[in-house]
Write a structure and sequence with these properties.
Structural class: alpha/beta
CATH superfamily: Vaccinia Virus protein VP39
Radius of gyration: 16 Å
Shape: globular
Helix content: 25-40%
Number of domains: 1
Distance between the termini: 11 Å
Number of helices: 6
Largest sheet: 7 strands, mixed
Mean pLDDT: 89
CATH architecture: 3-Layer(aba) Sandwich
Length: 200
């Protein structure tokens, strides 16, 4: 990654962006205690469906890397025959994800900020995961090298004051192909962006 983007990532830290940081042990405890079970509820379906729709329309090879996949909920919404790889820091989450009947799916326990893959994907998804990274832009740029030439990135975050600066930095780093805002019956709002290649 260029010096320019390293500086941009550090500037993000100075613009009131404050990541929520948990250890792998804490993530395991939360998944084991059911803290994240609601992600499988119908109230979460709309924004997951937008992500799946972007994938279905724009991933020519139908292969997806889900960064911070949790228990792999997104994999169940993808078209049959899709290649789905999920990565999460929580071994408890990945253990549950591996129990799902998802042909062609693979799950790995890894910190997304250090994860390395030799595979190429038609799409990379950051679904509600970016605000848990110390260096989100650096992580996105590094993993973007795993995209196929026509690949896309799909990012989703629920709306909080903390995400405003993060979305701005994402817009500087990547071209935006489309964007949608989804609101559920509880008033929770998500911004989902379809992103093209990293800017030079």
């Amino acid at each position: 990654m260029s010096l320019f983007w390293r500086v941009a990532d550090k500037l993000l830290q100075l613009r009131s962006y404050r990541p929520t940081l948990y250890s792998a042990t804490e993530w395991d405890r939360q998944f084991q205690n059911g803290r994240w079970d609601y992600l499988e509820n119908v109230e979460e379906l709309a924004h997951h469906s937008v992500i799946a729709g972007y994938f279905n329309r724009f991933s020519a090879e139908k292969s997806l890397l889900d960064v911070g996949c949790g228990v792999g909920v997104l994999g169940g919404l993808l078209p049959a025959g899709s290649r789905y790889v999920g990565v999460d820091i929580s071994s408890a989450a990945i253990e549950r994800a591996r129990l799902l009947p998802q042909p062609g799916a693979n799950f790995y326990v890894s910190d997304a900020e250090t994860y390395v893959t030799q595979e190429k994907f038609g799409a990379i998804v950051f679904n509600e995961s970016l605000y848990y990274f110390r260096n989100p832009i650096e992580t996105m740029l590094r993993l973007a090298t795993a995209l196929q030439p026509s690949g896309v990135i799909i990012a989703s975050m629920y709306a909080t004051p903390n995400t405003k600066h993060l979305w701005h930095s994402i817009g500087v780093a990547f071209s935006t192909l489309d964007e949608v805002i989804v609101e559920n019956s509880r008033g929770t709002r998500w911004r989902i962006r379809l992103l093209g290649p990293a800017r030079p």
